[in-house]
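Its record is retained below.
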Amino acid sequence: MNEIFRIKENGFDEVRKQVLIKILVIALMAMSFGLLISFFNTESTEEFFETLPIIMLFLVVSMFIGFRSAIKRYKSFFESYQLNFADKNITREQQKTPALTIQFSDIQSISQNKKGDYTIKGKTAHETIYIPSQIENNERLQSKLNQIRPVTEQNQKTFDQKYAIPLMIINLVCMAVVYISSNKILVGICAVAVSFILIRSSIIIIKNKNIDSRTKRGVYYTGLVLLSIIIVAIMKIAAF
């Protein structure tokens, strides 16, 4: 008999703070990067500080608008989550993402982390269903999962979960070096590092079936950033 699980009422309120912090961290890092590039590319320090109030006003307004849009979009995405149990498979459906179905016989493991989120792993890394702890009828859900395969405790985070912030910082620092530094060796090393990180993250995003289509379209902008990095690096390295 089929059974459907959805996000419980007001479930988003439990994750709102976490989402806000993540967006704020990313926004502040991006803003700092932009100001740093602007500072070093301005001919005089006085000119930079004269235009700083206008730049800050633009950044704050943009960040505020971006915040509201991002929260609204994520709320809609989060609350659209639906988990369908059929006789022989389980399907995750969510707004603007392809439905992901895993046969019970293909499930390799089912684990639960300290926050109460579940992870169902299929035959490949791309066949993974994540179930937020804000799901309704949690006890009933755990009972059904245990019938398929015993739920184990998830103690370790993946590499990307564990080092997401450090990798982002390294990426931004290397990008800044490419645009600011005149040292050819340093520019070359940082350009390679940025290219590797951007290409790797783009591939992960494209292949991930749990990421919405709008986020995946953002990979095209990543391509433009990568192209800019490569062009700047080549021009600096080739300069006599």
